[in-house]
Amino acid sequence: MGKKDPRVDAYIDKAAGFAKPILKRLRAAVHGACPEVEEDMKWSFPHFMYKGMLCSMASFKEHAAFGFWKGSLVVGDTSKNAEAMGHLGRLTSLADLPPKTVLARYIKKAAALNDDGVKVERTAKRAAPKPVRVPPDLAAALNRSAAAHKTFSAFSPSHKREYIDWITEARTAPTRERRVKQTIEWLIEGKARNWKYM
C-alpha cells in the first residue's frame, strides 16, 4: 500500500491559491494510478517514489509543474518541458491538466517502466563548468581572512558563484562593500550564501 507524507500536505497548504487544486488533483491521480506509490520531499518539492523515482510536482508564484523522472519515455513528443519545468507545461488552472484518463495512462506507463527496470540514458554530456572569476574586492577580502578563504576554496563553483553574483549585482559601492563584509563573516562561520534556506 502507498504512503502519504505530511510534508506534502504542508507543501500544498503553503502553495498559492491557484495551485492548491492543481497539486491536489495531481497527487490524487498519482495515488489512483499507482496505489503503491510513496511520497517524499526532495529538492524542497514533492516527489512520488515507486521502485525508484516516478514523478514530481512543484508550485511556483505563477504556475505549477509536473514531470516524470523518465519523461522522454512516458510522454514522448507531447512533452511541454520547453514551457516550464516538468512535462505538462505551465499549469495555472485545472483546465491546463490533461484529461484524467490521459494523466492516469502516463502515470501507469511510468510505473511500468520502473517495474521493468528501464533506465534512461543521458544523451547530452554535461558542459564543463565555467571558471569562477573572483572580483578583486572579494579576492582581497578573502586574502585577509584565512578562515573565510578556506571555506570559499572548499565550495563548489555554484556556491562560489552565489556569493560572487550577490556582490556584483549590488547597485552602489556602499552596498557592495557591505556585501563583501557580510560574505566574509558568513564564510568564517562556514556558511553558504543561501544558508538560511538549507
Total helical segments: 8
Strand order within the widest sheet?
A: 1-2-3-4
CATH architecture of the largest domain: Alpha-Beta Complex
User: How far is the N terminus from the C terminus?
Assistant: 32 Å
Mean pLDDT, to the nearest integer, reads 88
Could you list the spans in which at least 5 consecutive residues all have pLDDT below 50? none
- Provide the β-strand percentage band: 5-15%
What's the domain count?
Answer: 2
Number of beta-strand segments: 4
Topology:
Layout: H1 6-14, H2 19-33, E1 38-42, E2 45-49, E3 53-59, E4 64-68, H3 71-74, H4 100-115, H5 136-143, H6 146-154, H7 157-168, H8 173-188
Antiparallel strand pairs: 1-2, 2-3, 3-4
Helix pairs in contact: 2-4, 5-8, 6-8, 7-8
Molecular structure report:
With 198 residues, the protein is α+β, with helices and mostly antiparallel strands. The chain folds into two domains: 6-115, Aspartate Aminotransferase, domain 1 (Alpha-Beta Complex), CATH 3.90.1150; 136-197, no CATH class. It contains eight helices and four strands; from the N terminus they run ααββββαααααα. A four-stranded antiparallel β-sheet has the order 1-2-3-4. α2 (19-33) packs across α4, α5 runs parallel beside α8 (173-188) and α7 (157-168) runs antiparallel to α8 (173-188). The protein starts with 5 loop residues before the first helix and ends in a 10-residue tail after the last helix. The mean pLDDT is 88.
